């Protein structure tokens, strides 16, 4: 009854099923690996955001590379803003997906070192974004700021190309080494996303907290792939049984319609 399994059609179908099963199992493990990675990153972010604030110079220094564990840590710094040498970061969006700039202002610390502070988002003056925008003034005098420590931006991590020939005082990426050369100063590695003091009046829009990656979605995808893998042999067996049944019914009909003695 099952000799049809040796036909070309069924051999191909069986081979496809045998290939699909391990492939789907591997895809399930890949999604589970992504789930574990995202869960670990989410936990690192949560731990960093919940940690007690500390002076910025306890976590970074000139030439320091901000690590994954240091990222998003809340830090404090005291100094004065050097508004005359602030720059803007192009093609940044706010919570409403509006394109504008991030305002990057050097904060000169009491010991002379410089901390790059991202004061927040401002809208672009026009579609060309070639002219330096109108930037709300930074607080004057000595101030204490609080913010989230961030690593230097790179094209590899952000996908943003570091274009050349930009308008004056405009950059694509925030990079402490590049700013150290421009400012001719000792610039602390990484930068800080300002969280306090709260904006008042016409000031840049603060950048919100980082959101969690959707790790449970990868977990659901892993289960889905494994269910698909389990369903392949079940589907193959159902199709084979149906084919055998149809062939058996067809043979019985032929036998009944054949005259006796023929």
Question: Which regions are unreliable across 5 or more consecutive residues at pLDDT < 50?
Answer: none
Strand order of the largest sheet: 2-4-5-8-6
Mean pLDDT: 89
Question: Strand count, sense and closure of the main sheet?
Answer: 5 strands, mixed, barrel
Q: Could you say which overall geometry the principal axes of the C-alpha atoms support?
A: elongated
What amount of the residues lies in strands? Answer: 15-25%
* β-strand number: 8
What class would the helix/strand composition place it in? Answer: alpha/beta
Cα distance spanning the termini = 23 Å
Structural Rg = 31 Å
- String of helices and strands: HEEEEEEHEHEH
Helical content, roughly?
25-40%
Write the layout of secondary structure elements.
Elements: H1 8-50, E1 54-55, E2 74-81, E3 87-93, E4 99-109, E5 114-123, E6 142-150, H2 155-158, E7 170-171, H3 176-183, E8 191-196, H4 215-257
Parallel strand pairs: 1-2, 3-7, 5-8
Antiparallel strand pairs: 2-4, 2-6, 3-4, 4-5, 6-8
Helix pairs in contact: 1-4
How would you characterize this protein structure?
This protein is α/β, with parallel strands linked by helices and 262 residues long. The protein is built from four helices and eight strands, in the order H-E-E-E-E-E-E-H-E-H-E-H. It has a five-stranded mixed barrel. It is elongated, with a radius of gyration of 31 Å. The two termini are 23 Å apart. The model has no long low-confidence stretch (mean pLDDT 89).
